[in-house]
Amino acid sequence: MIKFYIKASIIAIFFSGKLCAQIVNIGDLSIAPNTQFATLLDFNNKPTGDLLNDGNLIVYANFNNDGLVTYSAPSAGKTFFIGAQQQLIAGTEIAHFQNILFDNTTSLVPFHLATAIDIGNKAEFKNGIIDAAGYNGKMIFDEKAFHSNVSNLSFVDGKVQKKGREMFEFPVGDKLFFRPSYHGMGSDNNNIYTTQYLFENAGSSYPYTSKDDTILSIDEMEYWNVTQDQASEKIVLSLTLDTNTTPASFFEEDVEKELAIVRWDNTTSKWINEKGVVSDPLPGGNYTKLITAQVSGYGLFTIGIVKKTIIVDSDLIIYNSLSPNGDGKNDSFHIKGIDKYPDNRVEIYNRWGIKVFDVNSYNESDVMFKGYSEGRETINKGKGLPAGTYFYILKYNTGSKTIEKSGYLYLSQQ
Fold this sequence. Notes:
There is one protein chain. It is built from no helices and 42 strands. It has 414 residues and is mostly beta strands. The protein folds into 3 domains: 1-157, no CATH class; 191-310, no CATH class; 317-411, Immunoglobulin-like (Sandwich), CATH 2.60.40. The strands form 8 sheets. Strands 6, 9, 12, 14, 16, 18, 19, 21, 26, 27, 28, 30, 31 and 34 form a 14-stranded mixed β-sheet that branches. A 7-stranded parallel β-sheet has the order 4-7-10-13-15-17-20, with no helix packed on it. Strands 36-42-41-38-39-40 form a 6-stranded mixed β-sheet, with no helix packed on it. It is globular. The termini are far apart. Residues 1-12 have low confidence and may be disordered.
């Protein structure tokens, strides 16, 4: 005889008086706001099961979803994966979590993600690496979703997908190393990108000897796979370098060499130079350096050492700091001599790859960047931007050729 005991939000299933090895939901299970449902046993949501979590769902064991797992927006529903054993997250259907916490210290890699899960608001990474690569899983972040506390102790080893146009740090890594990439999603809220970091050689299908003449050497220890699942725009991509995974030669300074992002180009079957500018880590970054470039395509990326680009016929002087406080000093991004080249374009991005400024015919008097988001296809148009580091791209026509320069711009509000 099967009996169901339901009291408040606690459910137990007995068969012939003995506790079963799992909790099975075959109907409607709702967790109301400010209430809690905890399962010490494996939880199995069957195809007929509807789980609505607007409260707190605490999962101590495995979690399988073949039905519907969702929440009522804008609730504060939260799911806690805090098991005392390794936990398998599986199922044939995508489970939708508004907020989720990963906190499991039973091993370094306690979470095995064998399905796709969707984050509507926030993912907190506290303890435990999520192995998605080994189980063919994927973590999806919705348009407004974000995360916190990612580190070498907790990240996604596998694919992470992001929807929308919001700035985003992809919380990816491999083995025991968190190695994020950063980029904004462009101007379209319907954009979708997926990223995975791999601490390994790209393999014989992508020979490192097949490369642009400007590329001197390539990081053969690691790469990122960035796919554009739904979009048509170029992105400004930032990759991370770390002394734990990146070869030591990529931290050595040489006046004739510089670092660049390199990408495997399927059309030419070689690694191409996407250029790039190196900077220090973002605040709280668990890595050593950051390199940023506007890339021309998608696929496999890593770091390259390239011949330093020297522009010998440019008479421009770029002042890469501004403090628009009205004191008459450095109130704008000043490019001395740009008036000689009216056929020009200036684009400025924040360090997550979101475009904040974009104009043609930049000059030294009225068309200038003054710390506000202006121009076409920019976010928060007309709004003052926060202090920090920004990435600029300058393109100008000299009459005989088009020259492109890029670098970092430092914005202070003092």
